[in-house]
Predict the structure of Mitochondrial import inner membrane translocase subunit TIM54.
Amino acid sequence: MAEPPPTSTPSPSNAAGIPSSSASPASPAVPSSSSAPSPAAPPTLASDPLPKPSSKEPLTGFRASLEHTGIPRSVLLWKPRLPSRNWTIFLTVVGTISYLYYDDRKQCKRIKEEYLEKVRYRSMEPTKYSLELPRKVKVIGAKWPEDDDDDRALRYFRKYVKPYLMAAAIDYEQMSAPLHGSITRQLQKQILQRRRRALGLEAAFESALPLPVQVDPKEAEQREMEGGTVIVGRASLKEYMEGLKRGWLGRVDDWDWEKSIGETLEKDGMFEKKVDVFPEPEADAPTPSDQPPPPASTSTSTSPSPSSPLYPPPPSSTGLSSSLSFLSRPPQPRPQSPMPYGSSPGAGSSASPPPIPESMHTPPYPLPPQPPILFVPFVSRLGFKQVPWMIYDFFTERHRVKSGAEAALALIEAQTRDFRGPTGAVSSSSSFSEPSREPDTDFETASESWYKKAFKDLPERMATARKDYNAKLAERVQDVYDLEDGKRQLTDAEMKSTKSLTTIQDLKDERKKKELRWMGSEEGYDIVKPDTPVAWDERFDGWLKVYELPAGWVPDRPQDLNDAIPHEV
């Protein structure tokens, strides 16, 4: 009897109809290590192993011979390649800047050597006698507006002009200019002394020490004319021309700028002592005769009290102080020879000289000759906005070197022409013909555009500083007077201080120093400000000379430097 076919049992499933893992088909059994061994792998064909590529590249040629000298293989096998983009940019920028600097300094050196060779023969020219003095020029370098360094213009001269003067054996002297207007005041004083001595109003200068060679005044004047005046920058030109105008065209009264400022300050009443004014007695008040006299300590006299801390008691009339009293005697002045105008041997020191006749105040005609002028362009870069121009100047030093060398060459070779005034007229006595050019009074006019804007506020700053100082000075003056009168005691700071107590004279000296700076700066500002033209007078036409090389000029010097040296026979 046939068996019935087996019925399949349904496998359990989850709600989604997916059979569970327990009902999954069984994976093929993996024989364990304890089961029968697996069949052996099919045999491979026997073959030789492939050789590994060599990590060392063989060296050929001279590299093979250098390999045994100890040089690393990385050096022998190095192959140059182009740098990256960033390195290319960096090397290009650095190389360009370095070359610009190197080429500029190379040209500066070449220009300097070229012009030194042109003027060196002058130092080998023979002198008339052994003690003859060389040529001497005066250098004027005014302060650049808003520049704290008042020596910058003179340093410019010493760097770009002085080397050629030294090579030609030419001496120089400098005029210091700590303030605006200092050059003008110095020139005015020098010219005024010269005029007064010529008129007999002032005694001539006599050296206290005997000189080995007495210089004749005419020779000294001739030597001054052979020298010259170096004008560095436009501010120097303005102050120089203003000094000439004040000195030669002004009056010949005795004038001292610092003394005149001191006399002005003495009259303004800043140091006058305030005296307490008592009210007038009323009708019912007792008369002054009925009141007891006030004590001596409450006197309202303006003289300081003898018991004041600033005034110790006078020394005794006996003892050491009396034996050394001759030390306090002032020296007796000795009259100079010749005597100045208006003085007499028997006249007292307080006698004022008679008034100077008006005829002596008339300017001389024609004006005495002046040394020729040498113009040296000069600009000082100040301020953050001028930094790009500072960088440009750093890489174009050759322009200033050449400008200074040409100016020095014109002075050394003594090639002059007439000074061109504002009218542009040129005298017929010019040493060479030249085309129409701008007047010399417009020298470096464009440089005034480089002044800082703060320069326009200089008068206001001076006025503010003076106002603040005077307000504090009034309190300090009153404190000193109160201490002298015994109205206050010494403070702890004054008692501990090792310095002497401040006196009225100390305050006067302090104020005078400040006023000299303020008044001098205000006066100089009016001279050098851009709106002020260069001082000029019709009498100056044809009077001044200017050093300048003519076009196509060829120096007349020996071909060999040895020709300039005298040889003994």
Summary: The radius of gyration is 47 Å. Strands lie at 136-140, 171-175, 229-232, 373-376, 416-418, 545-547. The longest helix spans residues 85-119. The chain has a mean pLDDT of 79.
